Amino acid sequence: MQEKQAQTQCNDPRCPVHGQLKTRGTRLSGLVVSSKAKKTAIVEVDYTIYLYKYERYLRKHSRIAAHNPECINAKIGDTVSIAESRRLSKTKSFAITGIVKPKAA
C-alpha cells in the first residue's frame, strides 16, 4: 500500500519525518483507536498466534501508544504505520511514520 507522507512542515524535534528522531527495529501497521492525548495516538495492532494443542489460530490485538506528530495528525479510524524508536515517555516507544489509509468518510 502507498503511504501518505506528511504535507506540512513541523518544528517537532520528535517527528520521524522532519525532526531528529531515528527509528529502528519493529515496523507495524494498525488502526488508530484514540487520539485524545496531546501528540499521542493509541494504535491497535491485530495479530494471530497458533495454538498447537487445539490446532487452531487465536486472534489477538495489542494497543500501542505512539507519538503522533502535528504534521501527520492521525485521527480515529485511520490506518497508520508505526516504527519503533527510543523511549519517548513512560509508555511511548513508537512513532507514527505515515497514514496508510485515511478513515472512510
CATH topology description: OB fold (Dihydrolipoamide Acetyltransferase, E2P)
What distance separates the N and C termini?
19 Å
Helix content: under 10%
CATH architecture: Beta Barrel
| Number of separate strands | 5
Structural domain count = 1
What is the topology, as strand order, of the major beta sheet?
1-2-3-5-4
Topology order in helix (H) and strand (E) letters: EEEEE
Unreliable segments of 5+ consecutive residues: none
Overall geometry comes to globular
- How much strand content do the residues show? over 45%
CATH class bucket? Mainly Beta
Q: Count up the helices.
A: 0
Overall mean confidence score, pLDDT: 91
Radius of gyration, whole Å? 15 Å
The largest pleated sheet is described as: 5 strands, mixed, barrel
Q: By helix and strand content, what is the structural category?
A: mainly beta
What keyword list fits this structure?
single chain; mainly beta; five-stranded mixed beta barrel; OB fold (Dihydrolipoamide Acetyltransferase, E2P); 49% strand; globular; 105 residues
Report on this model:
Strand 2 and strand 3 form a beta hairpin. The chain starts with 22 loop residues before the first strand and ends with a strand. It has no helices and five strands. It has strands at 23-34, 40-51, 56-67, 79-85, 94-101. The chain is mainly beta and 105 residues long.
